[in-house]
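Onboarding guide, step 5: your first structure request.
Type a short instruction followed by the sequence, for example:

Predict the 3D structure of this protein.
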Amino acid sequence: QDIDPKRYEDIQGEPMLFKEWQKGIIFDNKDSVYTDVTMNYNGFEEEFEVKRNDSKFIALDNRYYKKIVIESDASLSGKITFEKVKDSRFKNKFLQLVHDGEKIKVYKYFEARKGEVVVQDVGKTRTFENFKKVSTYYRLEGDKLRIIRTKKKSLIAELGEKKALDSYIKKNKIKLNSDKGLQQLLAHYETL
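The system replies with C-alpha cells like these:
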C-alpha cells in the first residue's frame, strides 16, 4: 500500500529505526529474494517501508515476508537481520537478531510509541505529540522469548561467568548500550 510521506509532520520525532534509509535484501515466504531494496523500519506501524522511487513509499505486509537483511556498520557482521519468531506475542512481527550462538540467541524488538507532551510556556500550556523510541532485548528459550536487561550488572548476572565477562568488558572498553558492543560481549561469552 502507498504511504503518505507527510503523515507524521504534526508529531515531533521520527518512528523510524534508522536515521537514513538503508539498502537491504527481502526474503518472502515463497523463497523469492529481492536485492538492493531501499527501506527503513517503522516502529510505530511495526512494518518495513520500501522506497519505490524518491517520492513514493510502500509498506510491506509482514505476513508475506520471512526475513529482511540490512547492510549496516552498526553490526559486527556488517549486516542486520530481522526475522520472525514463534513466540505468539510477536505474531507476524519482525525482531532484530542481535546474536545467534550455541549458548544464547538474543533478539531486539524496536517500537516507537506515540505520546503526548505538556509544556508550561510563559502564560500558557502547550501540548504536542511525539514519538518515543523503545528497544527491548529478549533471550530465546525454546519457542519463547524472555526479556533480558543489557545493563552491565544485569547482563553479567544473566550470563554468569562474572569474573571473565567483567574483565573482558573493562579490557576491551565495551559499550553495552550499542548492539555492536553487546554482540562483541556475547561472541566472547560463547568462547567461555
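Each response can be followed by summary notes, for example: The CA atoms of residues 101 and 187 lie 8 Å apart.
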